[in-house]
Design a protein that fits this description.
Elements (H helix, E strand, L loop, with lengths): L2 H14 L5 E2 L1 H13 L6 E3 L8 E4 L6 E8 L7 H10 L7 E7 L2 E7 L3 H7 L2 E2 L2 E8 L11 E8 L4 H9 L3 H9 L3 E3 L2 E2 L12 E4 L3 E11 L5 E8 L1
Helix pairs in contact: 5-6
């Protein structure tokens, strides 16, 4: 979708005072820029819980978000992509779903209320695994413990491959391999170029490895390298 079409949709939502579907981090940035230009300071983003990445643009107090709890049998292994793939196979629009939180044998999917009954009735399997589903409140989510470390890493530049290498202790060619294998995302958008330049507050994820949040440049060394502050989450 081109920018004009995207902004037309946002303008229409604002005119109708309507709540939107979910947007990823890159789309949220574009919307914020539009809201600033239009002097709209009333709209807010809501992902259902603090720290959510996918969020709706909320403009009224109507309750629109709820949670699909998906429970797997003990010992069954599954991933975010397994769950998302099964949801999309039911004909669900990706924009109706927010973040997916996995804790042990349970997955919590933030969804629009309008699709809750349909998903609860029709999602019976994820891959080959039979699952049980239930609609619960946002306050009933049990979040997993997340290992988080703040540190300073030394990099040659803010290129994606350089930051990946420094943040995840990878050889540069290994970082490039992850990008080529389509396992790296920046702000929830698939990364395709190792040379892409990152900026403060960018969220970089490697599927199966964790994610990294850039907090800012700490200083520049005499040799011109950058010490940047990052948060590593596993």
């Amino acid at each position: 979708m081109d920018n004009d079409s995207f902004y037309n949709i946002i303008e229409e939502l604002i005119d109708r005072n309507a709540n939107s579907d979910f947007y990823n981090l890159s789309e949220q940035d574009k919307i914020r820029q539009y809201l600033i230009r239009s002097m709209n300071f009333q709209s807010v983003f809501d992902g259902g819980f603090p720290g959510a990445e996918r969020k709706i643009l909320k403009q009224n107090e109507k309750t629109v978000l709820t949670v699909l709890r998906v429970t797997f049998k003990k010992g069954v292994e599954f991933s975010h992509s397994d769950i998302l793939g099964s949801l999309l196979s039911l004909g669900l629009d990706r924009k109706k779903t927010g973040d997916i939180i996995i804790n042990g044998q349970v997955a919590y999917v933030i969804i629009k209320e309008e699709v809750a009954s349909y998903l609860c009735l029709n999602l019976q399997k994820v891959g080959n695994a039979t699952v049980s589903t239930e609609i619960i409140s946002l306050t009933d989510i049990i979040f997993p413990e997340i290992s988080q470390e703040e540190k300073i890493i030394n990099v040659s530049s803010l290129r994606l491959d350089s930051v990946l290498s420094g943040g995840f202790h990878l050889a540069r060619n290994k970082s490039v391999d992850f990008i080529k294998a389509q396992k790296v995302s920046v702000n929830q958008m698939l990364a395709t170029k190792a040379s892409s330049l990152l900026k403060e507050n960018d969220i970089v994820s490697i599927r199966g490895r964790g994610r990294l949040v850039i907090k800012g440049i700490h200083n520049t060394t005499k040799k011109g390298r950058l010490n940047i502050k990052v948060i590593i989450q596993h």
